[in-house]
Amino acid sequence: MTKSRKMRQTSNDGNRRYGRWALAKGLVLILALIASGCAGHTELAPIGPPALAVWTLEDLSLPGTTQPDLAELMTAGVMEAVEADGAYTLVERERLLAILQELSLGSSELAADATSLRIGRIAGARLMVFGAYQVIASQMRVDLRLVEVDSGKVLNTATQTTAAGNLSGWLQAASMAAQELLVIR
């Protein structure tokens, strides 16, 4: 075998070895990229303001101390404050009620916060406002809490009080509590 032929054969063997290593490294790199892509799955952040649902405020007053349908009026005051704030997309109450009817839940299941959060998630809400009001002697107190639907974490709370005999004061207290609630610390 001539010297030039030996050099070409050695060169070809080296190219084959290099080609095999390049192929192996390429396959390892592709597998690593695929694995990192699967492990690093992240959800895209929703576009626009976060959706917020307001659950009907609960009347914790003693029987006979409040007026019928006041919970709906208080809830409407909270919803108006959320809408006026403009930082959130308000989930329609009709949508929440339709989901409630579709799920056919009993009253004991509705009392559970986990059920309420599940309904909020189905409605597309990222946040929910829960609350209650209570008349005690000459005072009315409204308490609200802002909850993250996915984690159940309470992000903020707010409380307002007003005179018990002043219905417009009750609505104003609900609105002021909602405004305070939406300022997340």
Task: Give structural notes.
- The chain has helices at 3-39, 70-85, 93-103, 107-110, 113-122, 167-181; strands at 51-54, 58-59, 89-90, 127-136, 139-148, 154-163.
- The protein is of the alpha/beta class.
- Strands 1, 2, 3, 4, 5 and 6 form a 6-stranded mixed β-sheet that branches.
- The radius of gyration is 31 Å and the shape is elongated.
- The mean pLDDT is 78.
Describe, in short, the structure shown:
The protein has six helices and six strands.
* Poorly predicted parts: none
Structural class: alpha/beta
- The geometry reads as elongated
Strands, total number: 6
Share in β-strands:
15-25%
Separate helix tally: 6
CATH topology of the largest domain: Rossmann fold
Rg (CA only)? 31 Å
Return the domain count: 2
Q: Span between N and C termini?
A: 84 Å
Task: Write out the CATH superfamily name of the largest domain.
Answer: ABC-type transport auxiliary lipoprotein component
What is the name of the CATH architecture of the largest domain? 3-Layer(aba) Sandwich
Helical proportion, percent range: 40-55%
Major sheet attributes: 6 strands, mixed
CATH class of the largest domain: Alpha Beta
Q: Calculate the mean pLDDT score and round it.
A: 78
Written as H for each helix and E for each strand, in order along the chain, the element string is: HEEHEHHHEEEH
